Amino acid sequence: MGARIARQNGAYYAIAMRTISLKLPDDLLVQLQSEAKARRVTKSSLVRESLEKALRQQPPPGGVSCYDLARDLAGTLRGLPEDLADNPRYMEDFGR
Q1: Does residue 42 form part of some domain?
Q2: Structural domain boundaries enclosing 49
Q3: Which of 38, 63, 89, 91 has CB 3.0 to 4.6 Å from 59, enough for a Cys bridge?
Q4: Is the whole-model pTM more than 0.70?
Q5: 3-state secondary structure the chain
Q6: Number of helices (H), then strands (E), in the chain
Q7: Is residue 34, in this structure, part of any structural domain at all?
Q8: How much is the pLDDT for 13?
Q9: Residue 88 forms part of a structural domain
């Protein structure tokens, strides 16, 4: 399959684009249409721009973990064993 030239608002760009289907709630679609109209761009280009921006802003791998988010809660329950994994008695039937 060779490279294709796609058309956008009367202009051509030389990168291949694939078509996908996207389901949006009505209120988000209205926002998308309104913003695209205000900026005088296609809905597709606005979705691409937003998706690229969101993916760039993702935290790097190894960033914040679940433990980091809940660290202040660790050890706050009273009356439980300190660490189930340290006592073989608590691990007797584990995995059976």
Answers
A1: yes
A2: 22-58
A3: 63
A4: no
A5: CCCCCEEECCEEECCCCCCCCCCCCHHHHHHHHHHHHHHCCCHHHHHHHHHHHHHHCCCCCCCCCHHHHHHHHCCCCCCCCCCHHHCHHHHCCCCC
A6: 3, 2
A7: yes
A8: 62
A9: no
